[in-house]
Amino acid sequence: MKALYIASTGMSAQERNVEVISNNIANMRTTGYKRQRAEFQDLLYQQITRAGSQTSDQGTMVPAGLEIGSGVRTVATPRVMSQGSVNMTERELDVAIRGEGFFMIQLPDGRTGYTRDGSFERSADGTLVNSSGYVVDPGITVPGDARGVSISPEGTVEAYIGTDTAPTQLGQLQLARFVNKSGLESMGDNLFLETAASGPAQVSLPNADGAGDLLQNYLELANVNSVTEIADLIAAQRAYEMNARVISGADQMMQATSQLR
Length: 261
Prior knowledge:
Main location: other
Order of helices and strands: HEEEEEEEEEEEEEEEEEEEEH
Strand order of the largest sheet: 8-7-11
Structural class: alpha+beta
InterPro entries: Flag_bb_rod_N, Flagellar_basal_body_rod_CS, Flagellar_FlgE/F/G, Flg_bb/hook_C_dom, FlgE/F/G-like, FlgG_G_neg, LlgE_F_G-like_D1
Number of strands: 20
Largest sheet: 3 strands, antiparallel
Mean pLDDT: 91
Domain Flagellar basal-body/hook protein C-terminal: 216-260
Number of domains: 2
Oligomer: single chain
Protein name: Flagellar basal-body rod protein FlgG
Subcellular location: Bacterial flagellum basal body
C-alpha cells in the first residue's frame, strides 16, 4: 500500500523541519545568527490517466487526470538574512552592521570567512581579531598604549596614542556584499563561506554601495522570533502526528484485508 511510503516521507520531512526549528531556538542568543527555514517539494507522480487523453472516437477528452503522488522531500534550508535588532554592550570593540554587509575574517587555511558577528578583541600583539582569534581583514593593529579607540560609521578606526592630544588613524574596516546571501555556506563559529551560488564578494567601505554603516558599542542579535518558532514547532509536530496516523490507518486497512482472506 503506497500510503505507508507516502506518509513516511512526510514524517521524514517534518523531522527535518523540527531539526531546523530547534537549531533556530538554540541560537536565539547567538550574535549575528540568521534563522533558517525548511523548504519542501512534492515528489514524482504516477500518471494513471493523463489530463487531455481522448475518451471516444469523437475526440472527447478527460478534463482532469488521475495522478497519485509519491510524497514530499526537503530541498533546502535557506537562511533568512533580515536585519536583527542591535543591543548596546558598552565595549569599544563591539561593532554592529546596519545593512547588508559582512565583516571579512582571515581563516588559518588562507580562505576568507564572512560574519555579522562584530564582537572583536585584541590579540597579544594588538591585532584586531574575532572571538576565535582569527584576524579581521583588512588587518588593523591597536598599539598597547592606545586609548579611546573609536570606530566611525564609515569604518575608520582611530585612537589616542600615548600622550597624544589628537587621534591617530589605525586602519579602515571594510564590508563585503553578495548578490545571493542565502547561497553562502555556513561553517560554524558565526562564519560563512563564499560559494558559486552566492556569487563573489563585493568589497566596499561601510556606508557605500548599500553595504550599510557601523555602530560602535553595539552587537547585532539573532533575527529569531521565539513566538514564531514555537508556532512553527507546534505546526510541524501536528503534521508529523497526522502522517503517523496515516501509517496507522493504512496498517489497519491492510490488516482488515488479510483477515478477509
